[in-house]
Amino acid sequence: MQALPAKKAWGLAAGAAVGVGLLAGVAVIVFATLTAFFDNPRRLDDHKVIALVRSECATMRSTVDSLADSTKDETTDDRLVALEDQNLAVERMVLRLASVPTEVRDGDKPLDAWLTDWEALVTARRAYIKRASEGYEANFKVPISGHDKPITDRMDSAARGVCQVPPVLLDPDALGGQEA
């Protein structure tokens, strides 16, 4: 069998490289086009939803953080009222986002589960507030997901870079206060 001349071999190699490059480029374009039409089931990714979540979350975070700062030297009762006011700020965010038109909500399937997790967090905080207000020792525990992880892992993952759970919501005891 006779070897190809060097010039011809290089030509074939260059042609093959160009062909592979074109196929890879087409594959990337096809993948990007297809994924643009499919919703990531674990992450908020619709630009309309992200803009709304970012805005509502900023309002909620501002309220939650200001309440934490304002109760550093308050009594236990004042601290419990501030905790409930933080819950109300979260609930306002959830209600506003839940009222987003269906066609927008349908563009980002994880939104409903993400909002449900916020509601579960508020429910757990309310149980803590109730025990503390009745004079019992109250220990706050973040609700656990079906995978034995805190729901906040799922929440933060779904809204990464858009709306992270404020740490002060996860540690009600850190919200200032002195024993009454």
List keywords for this structure.
mainly alpha; 180 residues
Describe the structure.
The protein has 2 domains: 1-38; 47-174. Helix 2 runs antiparallel to helix 3 (76-98), helix 3 (76-98) packs antiparallel against helix 5 (110-133) and helix 5 (110-133) packs across helix 6 (151-158). The chain contains 7 helices and no strands. It is mainly α and 180 residues long. Mean pLDDT is 84; it is low at 31-36. The relative contact order is 0.14.
Low-confidence runs (pLDDT<50, min 5 residues)?
A: 31-36
List how many beta strands DSSP finds: 0
**What number of domains?**
2
User: Number of helical runs?
Assistant: 7
Which sheet architecture does the biggest sheet show?
Answer: none
Helix content: 55-70%
Strand content: under 5%
The 3D shape can be described as elongated
- Cα distance, first to last residue? 97 Å
Q: From the structure provided, what is the oligomeric state, counting identical versus distinct chains?
A: single chain
Which structural class best describes the helix and strand composition?
A: mainly alpha
H and E order: HHHHHHH
Quick check: average pLDDT?
84
Radius of gyration: 26 Å
